[in-house]
Write a structure and sequence with these properties.
The protein is α/β, with parallel strands linked by helices and 686 residues long. It has 13 helices and 36 strands.
Length: 686
């Protein structure tokens, strides 16, 4: 290509000044009608042209290919119906058509759903801008976006960074309808035994004649029944909080009249249950060094209401002390063990011996209390091995250890057993024996010999005698501590031990704290992965069946991570509810925020992208009408039609060689200037 260029031999400012002066002189000559003015003007023109340094430039150019981008939406909403198949078929057809276009480079990128806490939705334009970040605007031919239209980062038309046609191909069908459940507000905390309130909204997107919908409620995997709630209006529901820790509330709206997907009909809300006050009954059989340890531990917790009695006088003891001087109040055994027993969260017998104070029927009442969901802890001393042992009462039917009648004395360090290594109460006790090394705790000096008859022995003496036995009886729990020497740890004898932590865990396990459940299945979203954790005392555990929000199921084998803990992981590529079950236990969790944008409206739509496409000079087409033909158009021309889409042909190039030639040599310029001056002189001399 040849073009005219200039290389001034004097500064441009000087050249401009000379041109102004020459123009002024010439105009003045014409004004006064001087002879030869046009010849002097010609001389000035030739001089200025020569000083401008005119050159002929010959360029050798190599054309640069334009760049087009195909952005394929592979977010969660594209999995509905035939959208994914439509999109992939269109992408394959477009690749063939674009490959036949000369001087065009095609780039591809895609959008996926991220199951994180960020509520970003489908970030199509972020992917588009990233794909074109290193491409000059003059080489961008355009972009083709294959999506269902549910894009959540679409800019306003005036803020569109793309300066080329945006062609949108919409997968899905026109005029789709869908039902959606939205949790607008939910209580995050509630007192155990009370109710948590949630406000929700059910919408029939696309229109419906139904005025109400069935809402199914599940709490911790168990059905809590159905409620009838209005459609298109706010509705408040109340659910009971039954235990401390996380209460998992699943809400599911029934199928709508024209349901597109059930993925946005579900929601999960976690409500943390907190206990208002824990009621603990502590009955001590006699004063001893460990009695204050129990009392101090329970009184140190401000959330615990402790009722403590110490039995100092058996009913058959006779002396001359007046009764009104011996005690302040009478022992309220009827109120405690008959009328109000069920109001206690935990009953502790600390070195209690059966002296006939409590009728045997009351011990039977305590056993029934445990079987119906209560918690009982027996802290034993030498009396447990004698004829006054509570094991010789109806309470024996729920106790996990049977005394042999012997009391073993001598120093020993408590050991965590093989079962204890897997049980949450003792698994991570600081200083425990592990990897063949002994525990670093201080010694105890007495253990009540017994035989385990139920449950698991989680701690034992050095000789293997059961020291701490745990069992679940009916709906309740019971623990047997076969020594009264825990106070030695509290006093720091020989370095002490984790006395407070052990008793805290023991009390919370008895009261069914979820974090201390030995048999538990939990599911969490961690760093974009689904992590399944199975706690069990069993030597083996079956695989877990994981159900994804889309309904697809995956079988995952569990791998033993440590004693009592098995784990499995899977990729969390979808937003919504993930359900896991091993046939015995079930768990559910939600990936992403409570009301994710990605599932807010899953109908295919052109409404979001139509203004942006129009502003770019592009268009929107539905794939159900077929894949439009691709054409190249000059920049600024119409880039779409009823059955075709256009990409700019920018004609970008790179100069590979350059040749310059002076257009007016110096000798020729001088000759022309002199000739023009002679002509002017001749004309003026007439």
């Amino acid at each position: 290509m040849t073009r005219l260029a200039f290389a001034p031999v004097v500064p441009l400012s000087l050249l401009t000044a000379l041109a102004v002066i020459a123009l002024a002189i010439t105009l003045y000559g014409f004004f006064v009608h001087a002879r030869g003015t046009w010849a002097r003007g010609l001389a000035f023109t030739i001089l200025l042209f020569a000083l401008a340094g005119p050159m002929l430039v010959k360029e050798q150019r190599a054309s640069l290919p334009d760049v087009a981008v195909i952005v394929t939406d592979r977010s969660q909403s594209m999995s509905i119906g035939k959208r994914s198949a439509q999109a992939e078929a269109a992408r394959a057809q477009l690749r063939k058509m674009l490959a036949a276009q000369p001087n065009l480079t095609v780039r591809e990128t895609s959008i996926t759903t991220t199951a994180t806490g960020e509520n970003n939705g489908t970030q199509a334009f972020a992917a588009l801008n990233a794909a074109l970040a290193d491409v000059p605007q003059g080489r961008v031919a355009g972009a083709i976006l294959i999506t269902d239209g549910q894009v959540h980062d679409a800019p306003s038309p005036e803020n569109l960074a793309l300066k080329a046609p945006l062609q949108v191909l919409v997968a899905g069908g026109r005029n789709e309808k869908d039902r959606k459940l939205t949790v607008m507000n939910a209580a995050r905390f509630a007192i155990v035994g009370q109710q948590a309130t949630m406000r929700l909204w059910i919408d029939d997107l696309g229109g419906s004649s139904e005025t109400s919908a069935v809402l199914n409620i599940r709490i911790d995997g168990k059905s809590f029944g159905n409620r009838l709630v209005p459609v298109g209006k706010e509705a408040d529901i109340r659910v009971p909080v039954t235990h401390e820790g996380e209460n998992l509330i699943e809400l599911s709206a029934g199928q709508g009249p024209a349901e597109l997907t059930m993925q946005n009909n579900h929601a999960v809300v976690t409500v943390s249950g907190v206990r208002d006050r824990l009621r603990v009954l502590l009955v001590s059989g006699e004063p001893h060094a460990g009695e204050r340890v129990w009392r101090n531990l329970l009184k140190a917790d401000p959330s615990v209401d402790l009722i403590h009695f110490t039995i100092l006088r058996p009913p058959d003891k006779q002396d001359s002390t007046p009764l009104n001087e011996l005690s302040l109040i009478a022992f309220p055994y009827r109120e405690l063990f008959l009328e109000k027993l069920d109001s206690f969260d935990l009953v502790v017998f600390d070195r209690y011996r059966e002296r006939g104070i409590l009728p045997l029927a009351y011990f039977q009442n305590i056993a029934s209390y445990v079987q119906n969901g209560g918690a009982l802890l027996i802290s034993s001393g030498p009396e447990f091995a004698g004829p006054e042992s509570v094991y010789r009462t109806p309470l024996s039917q729920v106790l996990p250890a049977q005394p042999t009648g012997q009391v073993v004395t001598g120093g020993f360090r408590p050991q965590v057993t093989q079962d204890g290594m897997a049980h949450p109460v003792t698994r991570e006790l600081p200083g425990r024996n592990q990897d063949g090394s002994a525990a670093i705790w201080g010694r105890w000096f007495r253990v009540i010999a017994s035989n385990r008859v139920a449950g698991q022995t989680v701690m034992a003496s050095a000789s293997g005698q059961p020291l701490l036995v745990l069992d679940q009886v009916g709906k309740g729990r019971v623990a047997g501590l076969m020594s009264d020497q825990t106070w030695l740890w509290a006093r720091g004898f020989e370095g002490g031990g984790p006395q407070a932590e052990l008793l805290r865990r023991l009390a919370h396990w008895l009261m069914k704290e979820p974090e201390l459940e030995a048999e538990n299945l939990s599911i969490d979203i961690v760093g974009g992965d689904v992590r399944i954790t199975r706690r069990t005392m069993a030597a083996k555990t079956p695989p877990v069946n994981l159900t994804l929000p889309s309904g697809r199921q995956v079988a995952l084998p569990l791998t033993k991570a440590e004693p009592g803990i098995w784990r499995a992981t899977a990729k969390a590529g979808e937003l919504g509810l993930y359900r896991a079950t091993d046939g015995i236990l079930s768990a559910v969790t939600a990936a992403g925020p409570l009301n994710p944008k990605e599932v807010a409206d899953m109908r295919a739509s052109a409404d979001v992208l139509q203004p942006v496409a129009d502003a770019s000079g592009g268009s929107v087409h539905w794939l159900e009408d077929g894949v439009p033909e691709v054409r190249r158009v000059d920049s600024g021309d119409t880039a779409s039609g009823s059955n075709w889409i256009g990409l700019n042909n920018n004609g970008a190039y790179r100069v590979t060689a350059l040749e310059q030639q002076k257009l007016l040599p110096q000798w020729l310029a001088l000759l022309l200037i002199v000739g023009a001056l002679l002509l002017a002189w001749r004309l003026e001399g007439r």
